[in-house]
Design goal:
CATH architecture: 3-Layer(aba) Sandwich
Organism: Huiozyma naganishii (strain ATCC MYA-139 / BCRC 22969 / CBS 8797 / KCTC 17520 / NBRC 10181 / NCYC 3082 / Yp74L-3) (Yeast)
CATH topology: Rossmann fold
Protein name: Helicase ATP-binding domain-containing protein
Strand content: 5-15%
Number of domains: 1
CATH class: Alpha Beta
Helix content: 25-40%
Largest sheet: 5 strands, parallel
Number of helices: 7
Radius of gyration: 20 Å
Number of strands: 5
């Protein structure tokens, strides 16, 4: 089971719609989890992905749910916690610091992976906001097994430098390899 958090409610609604499009995932609003409940039990987790806005992430309910995940959820693994539009995180925090007070006390390290996405932040732009999330180790742009926090700068470095496409015809591995060697 995974969580996706976005800056605002209209983006949350849009994200829910997009994730449901292919019908591959059960997607729900994270606010449904703690509506009329103080504690969320494992049997209430009916979706694959729960989508919320940043202010949903800042609630005591979210903190309690994630921090007690493996105490209440024996069969359900906490998969991804995705924070989209991360460039807005610091802005939102500075506008409404009281609404996001709990975020720094959420044990995000309990998740299999925490993925923060931004289309405009470079590597250095992540540091302050990641510290607020409890990731205090230095950021690295070199992936390694020992590092918990790796940043791939999609703003300045494209993840796929070369792309070769074939349309129709017979696939010839030798010709493709020769093309790649000289690329």
């Amino acid at each position: 089971m995974s969580f996706v958090f976005v800056p605002r409610i209209p983006l949350k609604t849009n994200m829910i719609t997009r994730l449901k499009t292919k019908g591959l995932l059960e997607v729900a609003d994270v606010a449904e989890l703690w509506r009329n409940r103080l504690n969320v039990e494992e049997d209430a987790l009916s979706a694959d992905v729960y989508v919320g806005a940043f202010h949903d992430m800042g609630t005591a309910f979210c903190k309690r749910l994630i921090n007690n995940w493996y105490g209440t959820s024996k069969k359900t693994i906490l998969g991804l916690v995705v924070i989209d539009e991360f460039q807005n995180f610091e802005t939102e925090f500075s506008i409404r610091p009281g609404s996001y007070e709990s975020i720094g006390r959420i044990k995000l390290q309990l998740a299999w992976k925490v993925l923060v996405l931004s289309s405009t932040l470079g590597c250095q732009g992540f540091a302050t906001a990641l510290e607020r999330l409890g990731f205090e180790m230095p950021l690295t742009t070199e992936p390694s097994l020992g590092e918990q926090c790796y940043v791939h700068d999609l703003v300045h470095e494209l993840p796929l430098a070369n792309s070769i496409k074939w349309f129709g015809g017979v696939f010839c591995l030798r010709r493709a390899w020769r093309g790649l060697k000289y690329w």
